[in-house]
Amino acid sequence: MPRKAVNSNGADVVKAADKATERLAEVKASIGQVIYGLDEVVELSLAAILSGGHALLVGAPGLAKTRLVETIAIATGLDTKRIQFTPDLMPADILGSEVLEESEGGKRSFRFIPGPVFCRLLMADEINRASPRTQAALLQAMQEHHVTVAGERHDLPQPFHVLATQNPIEQEGTYPLPEAQLDRFLLRVDVPYPSREAERDILMATTGPNDAKATKVLSAKEILEMQALVRRLPVGEKVVEAILDLLRLARPDVSEEKDVQMGVSWGPGPRAGQALMLACRARALLQGRLAPSTEDVAALAEPVLKHRMALSFAARAEGMTLESLIGRLAAKAA
Predict the structure, then answer these.
(1) What InterPro entries does the entry give (predicted)?
(2) Do 264 and 311 contact (CB within 8 A), yes or no?
(3) What CATH class does 235-334 carry?
(4) What is the pLDDT of residues 194-203, one digit of tens each?
């Protein structure tokens, strides 16, 4: 007998999903007033937020990655702060620090001054330009939603999300993100060059006398309610099996694919399956559907797996790419 769907469905879920879909359409329309030709990038970024996770935006300079994050912050109603990562950035510049103060009575005590990480949407600009020590300062915040400074725990506001940007072509003076930190990102979102039509719209909209602005649509409370709703959406057994099949196919020690056995250095762990399950639900909600399908699994395979796998040197030398490999695996699994 097949197992039941992961979550039960009910009238309250249907009603909440319909309302959320309408509100999310308003969010996408608000973002669309400023960001042109990046509908898929916007959808993936919103899916990461609805899933309660973080996203890594990778693209060449000038593709509106920074503007996208700022616009998403406005439309979703999440207070945002920006950190420009540089080689001399220190962990205290992100987390905050304690300062020694003296009261009027002469009594001395330490006071914690929060860093920019204490916000709901943190933009980590060019995250790979900071040293590994500084990059590691974000690990606890991204995973546990609190930081520890001088032995004291400080909780971050809820919800808390990191949208980080990375430039793939300027590698001088950069520090590759360690696998442990890459795994903290729910999705890797590749930002492409715009189409000719989208670039025409960009030219006309950004070189005139008026600068388009996004409008606030959601609030932090609504985001939290939507995140709870995403976890209540039903997932059919066929989708669960497709996710499990994809994960097994991508792991070199258990995969039946020769390309994976010979060409993949390491494959995705269980966190990849969790990310795929949540992101599929979020994508379905964004598109006005009550439950995800295997098409969602195929569409999200690359954003979920690309930063959680690595090709061997020999495979890269033979011209193999992760994009093509993940595409083949997703087609077979879904």
Answers:
(1) ATPase_AAA-3, CbbQ/NirQ/NorQ/GpvN, ChlI/MoxR_AAA_lid, P-loop_NTPase
(2) yes
(3) mainly alpha
(4) 899 989 988 8
20/288 Cα distance (integer angstroms): 9
Q: How far apart are the first and last CA of the chain?
A: 21
Task: Count Cα neighbours of 154 within 13 Å in the Cβ-side half-sphere.
Answer: 20
Strand intervals (E) in 136-185: 146-149, 152-155, 161-166
Residues contacting 295, CB < 8 A, separation 6+: 334
Domain boundaries, the chain: 235-334
Distance separating alpha carbons of residues 308 and 268, to the nearest angstrom: 5
Task: Give, in order, the Cα–Cα distances in Å from 41 to each of 47, 118, 188, 330.
Answer: 10, 25, 10, 20
326 in Cβ contact with 305 (< 8 Å): yes
Rounded to whole angstroms, how far apart are CA atoms 310 and 263? 9
3-state secondary structure of 55: strand
The three-class DSSP label of residue 34 is coil
Q: Which of 133-142, 233-242, 309-318 has the lowest mean pLDDT?
A: 133-142
Burial class (CB in 10 A: 0-12, 13-18, 19+), 112: middle
Element holding 122 (H helix, E strand)? strand 121-125
265 vs 255: CA distance, rounded Å = 12
